[in-house]
Amino acid sequence: MNIDQQTYDALLRFQRNEITESIVYTKLAAIEKDPDNKNVLLRISADEKGHYGILKKYTGRDVAPYKWRVLKYYLLARILGITFAIKLMEGSEEGAKNGYAAYKDYPDLLQIAKDEDEHEDKLIALINEERLEYMGSVVLGLNDALVEFTGALAGFTLALSDSKLIALTGSITGIAAALSMASSEYLSTKSEGGEGKHPVKASVYTGIAYIFTVVALVAPFIFISNVLAALGLMLLSALLIIALFNYYYSVARSESFRKRFTEMAVLSFSVAALSFLIGYALKEFTGIDV
Q1: 33: closest CA among 82, 88, 79?
Q2: Are 17 and 93 in contact (CB under 8 A)?
Q3: How far from 249 is each of 106, 169, 246, CA to CA, in Å?
Q4: Which of 44, 167, 196, 216 has the most crowded CB, counting CB atoms within 10 A?
Q5: How high is the pLDDT of residue 82?
Q6: Alpha-carbon gap, residue 140 to 27, rounded angstroms
Q7: CA 163 from centre of chain
């Protein structure tokens, strides 16, 4: 088939992307324990392999996959879950998918684009991953810890003025709050009938998310004696946690990162600022200087 060099290079790149994704899906299927999820992944892998075969008719050659990309998404799936890895991969390949539409004289390529937009998206939506089922519990733990604990530590900073005392008080308060929040999530999930969630698992996800946040926010006060410097680092840590979690959530749930990040950051920092002022006011009013 006679095609110009520019088109040939583009199709070769598309072909390499398709075989790379096919191998990624095959590897993910190999580590997936749920039989339904495994079948979905193998079906998508077969689709990608079919697209590779269509492109090979135009290029007339076999191509090797991007090995580093296969390793990247395999490791991401192991650490952050299959859904996150798949959606991140599909999102990064959006440009390649849209590129097919530029070749209107090649019906096969337009069919590939249609498959990518319709068939595979529907298949991906069928994947059922436990960690996403309990995302609401994780959100509850993280959000409550960030809002409540940034405020508490900011208030302690001026009320107590001693980094080690702030760390001790904050740790006790945080652990107690984590246990309380986990218990509340257990009772809430159980009273609602679970909606497919196990009450104990829901409470564990909430408690772990809360304690993880507490440890990250208390750490600056343990290692830094200057309370204002520790407070500044604590707020930066809170911002980083908000950014990382909402990036993960936005990719896994296909939602807007900017909206969720802004909402949580503004809420947490507003409570922290208000608590800081309350701590200062109480210190001045009571005349207690620790």
Answers
A1: 82
A2: yes
A3: 37, 31, 5
A4: 44
A5: 85
A6: 33
A7: 32
- The confidence score (pLDDT) of residue 69 equals 92
Q: What is the pLDDT of residue 32?
A: 85
Conformation bin of residue 95: beta by default, left when phi > 0, alpha when psi is -120 to 50: alpha
d(CA 219, CA 6): 55
Going by C-alpha positions, the residue among 105, 123, 122, 103 that lies closest to residue 113 is 103
Q: Residues of the chain whose pLDDT is less than 70?
A: 1-2, 92-98, 117-123, 126, 128-131, 193-196, 279-280, 283, 287-290
CA–CA gap between residue 259 and residue 225 (Å, rounded): 35
Smallest CA-to-CA distance from 60 within 105, 115, 15 is with 15
Contact 157, 149 (CB under 8 A): no
The model's pTM is 0.75
Which tokens in the block code for residue 251? 């990719």
Q: What is the pLDDT of residue 126?
A: 65
pLDDT of the residue at 160:
78
What is the number of residues in the chain? 290
- Taking Cα atoms as reference points, which of 213, 216, 239, 230 lies closest to residue 161? 230
Look at residue 97 in the predicted model and tell me its pLDDT.
60
Give the C-alpha separation, 148 to 181, whole Å.
12
Q: What is the pLDDT of residue 280?
A: 67
